[in-house]
Amino acid sequence: MDQAILEQFRKIPIQNGGLKSALVYMPMHHINEVDTDLFIKYLQKEIQPAIQVAFPRTNFKTLDMEAILTKETGSFRENSLRLAEPVHGRLLAPQKVDIVLLPLLIFDKKGNRVGYGKGFYDRFLARCRPEVLKIGLSYLPPVPQIEDVGNFDIPLDYCATPDRLYDFK
Q1: In angstroms, rounded to a whole number, what is the distance separating the alpha carbons of residues 6 and 81?
Q2: How far is the C-alpha of 63 from the C-alpha of 72, rounded, in Å?
């Protein structure tokens, strides 16, 4: 199914050479999140070979999230919630991020998403440039509507599923 989601992801109008950096989550395989490795390889091989890939590192005391640039796959450690996060690397400012792949539990037909309830991504996205591409990856189609959308929730621009690419722009 990850390959089918990648085929839908390829339909997103991303300009070759236009991306300099991406924030990509490390999937939690124990809860069956979409594997992002295929998407990283696609971005690096077909869109922009020089793209910098950052991974999120969270702070549960401040509920803040940072984008950390790292090339060393061995430099990840699971936190208390079993999220693999970079231990070492350079900080990438939110304003420098061009595309964000977002983990989600569900999304709706308006592009709203439900994540894991702490708002890390919404707070991070609020510090990004308005034109940052926000892309969800989901095994499931959207629900009709998410009822409890808050004022600080930031909707997706796209969501790729195995059967379709949803465009919310």
Answers
A1: 27
A2: 25
pLDDT in tens, 53-79: 999 998 888 889 999 998 765 688 887
Instruction: Quick: pLDDT tens for 109-138.
Output: 999 999 876 889 999 999 999 999 999 999
According to CATH, what is the number of the domain 2-167?
Answer: 3.40.50.10420
Q: Give the position of tokens 């890939």.
A: 53
Alpha carbon distance 146, 3 (integer Å): 27
Q: Cα(169)–Cα(121) distance, rounded to whole angstroms?
A: 19
Between CA 162 and CA 103 the distance in angstroms is 15
Spatial CB neighbours of 52, under 8 Å, sequence gap ≥ 6: 20, 21, 22, 69, 92
DSSP percent split of the chain into helix, strand, coil, nearest 5: 20, 30, 50
H or E element, residue 26: none
- Domain segments of the chain: what residues? 2-167
